[in-house]
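seq as requested:
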Amino acid sequence: MPPKILIVEDTESLALMYQSYLIPTGVETRIAYNGEQAVFALQEFEPDLVILDVMLPDMNGLDILSSLDPDTAPQVIVLTGHATKEMAIKAIKLGASDFLEKPIEADRFRITVNNALKLKDLKQTVKSYQTTYENGKYYDLIGSSSEMQSVYQIIKSASASKATVFITGESGTGKELCARAVHLASPRANKPFVALNCAAIPKDLIESEIFGHLKGAFTGAITNREGAAGQADGGTLFLDELCEMDVNLQSKLLRFIQTGCYQQVGSEKEVKVDVRFVCATNRDPLLEVQEGRFREDLYYRLHVIPIALPPLNQRGKDVIEIADALFKKISKEEGRAYKGMSEGVKNLFLSYGWPGNVRQLENTIRNILVLHDEAYIEASMIPALPNAQNQSQPVAATVNTVTPEVMPSQSFTSPSMEAAPVISEVATAFSQADIEPLWLVEKRYIEQAIDACDNNIPKAAALLDVSPSTIYRKIKSWEEMQVS
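struct tokens:
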């Protein structure tokens, strides 16, 4: 997206001339002919840079400059036909990045504009280096636990490097948020962050998704397409669920990582890019190597800076911090009021195992906000949660009947207390002839969930508390069973 520049100049001929100076640079420009128009354009146009004349018909340009918030204001170049040393000093003190006296030559004008835009980028980069986890938050990652502080420290230490980061963790622990934090903490923060889920793309299309293709390279390739590698040039390429990638494609990825060069599908021309790699998986990568599903040389090439994200049930009171942040975020999305959680809610959240991690917590909170209008969250609003040890068995005591005064130990019935009678009842109802393979029962249940969600697999996965990649992988395995 090109930089946006607002030209504030009351003389139309000069304003148009300054605009013509900037045409070769490819920036987007807008003109304001007085102070009132300038104030409106600052809010509506949101420029990156303002070229501001001091003498305007309805106000002094320096008054506009002094009204800007230094934390969010664009860069400002002040123009005047009656320059004095005192005026220049005042403009710089008020936050102007430069000061130009009329008349202005085209080359000098363009150089000054270019320098101001570079200064803006530099300020943003410096700002991105500043750590933001004093209050239990580091970019979009939330949590004050020692486990998460260790994660923040690794990200901070690795931020200035181009070394590959390899993130592991259970589904729903926030691996993409971690990858974004790596990007935002680095000098590449102002460049693209491109995320690609290797499990959500069909095997025959993933090479095209990563490297792009030329028109006619395969059936359906009706135009040239730049892949994720090209889009991420100068920035960060995040490959999620990397262990799902086909082994044959892994060799091409290895060469790309080693050389920075790749070929689009259907092309013999090499393209070179500058990309930082961040990868993630919810599997054990070494086990995948041992089983022959993941190349050992690729593993060691990528496994430079490992980050292991802890599951939510090992992060102590982080669950309360995350829940509060999610309540605030989702309440805005759903148009609901939120004032806080009762102690009963906090106790229930702390006592539950969260097998689906932060993703499950987010779904639970959205359920509460959608189904209840109250601004203060009570324990009676929490839906029944699946048991942490056996997700197919719901919690025996439905949480909806719990009041804030009930202790967590009273809210959840122990699985061992309920298991015996349930098993004995099933034993009397079933004979050996009724027993089916477990995968077949699972297949039927998942297919019913997909049908109930109108074939929306991500939605079905959210309701089943699994990642979409898990369902795609199971569908693929069922298809292979049918073929064999």
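The longest helix spans residues 106-129.
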